[in-house]
Amino acid sequence: MNTRVNSFAPLAEPPTFTTKAPRKDKPVEEEVIARIAEQNNFPSREAPKQRRKQRRYKTGRNRHIGIRATDETVERFYKSADDHQVPLGELLRLALDALDRAGGSR
Questions:
Q1: SS3 track for the chain
Q2: What is the pLDDT of residues 22-52, one digit of tens each?
Q3: In whole angstroms, how far apart are CA 73 and each of 50, 69, 78, 79?
Q4: Is the per-residue pLDDT at 106 higher than 70?
Q5: Is there a contact between 88 and 81 (Cβ–Cβ < 8 Å)?
Q6: Angle of helix 71-84 relative to helix 88-101, nearest 10 degrees?
Q7: Given CA atoms 88, 89, 93, 99 in this order, what sign does their dihedral have?
Q8: What pTM was computed for the model?
Q9: Rounded CA gap, 78 and 55, in Å?
Q10: In the chain, where the domains are located
């Protein structure tokens, strides 16, 4: 028994396989998609409606400071900068000056 059995010997010709024709996708209307998304509370991928205007000041400040803060604190900081019409760096300087004048040690 030194010979191997050919498992393909009973086949006269190898089988031929064909692929099915691709299925035609039916287009879905945008209103239907929007209604289903709303019913299932899917968030929209659209950009937020209100955006802050960009601040562009030439102040000579070239150092970056990365700070972690709560959403409330960041919004207060931006609102204060908008109210005083100063760049964020200037607002930080004013706040630190006020803290120093008040004797800011706890």
A1: CCCCCCCCCCCCCCCCCCCCCCCCCCCCCHHHHHHHHHHCCCCCCCCCCCCCCCCCCCCCCCCCCCCCCCHHHHHHHHHHHHHHCCCHHHHHHHHHHHHHHCCCCC
A2: 888 888 888 888 888 889 988 777 776 777 7
A3: 19, 6, 9, 10
A4: no
A5: yes
A6: 100
A7: positive
A8: 0.45
A9: 10
A10: 69-106
Name the residue type at position 37. A
Q: Are 61 and 93 in contact (CB under 8 A)?
A: no
Q: For residue 2, what are its two tokens?
A: 């030194």
- C-alpha Rg value of the chain to the nearest Å: 34
Length of the chain: 106
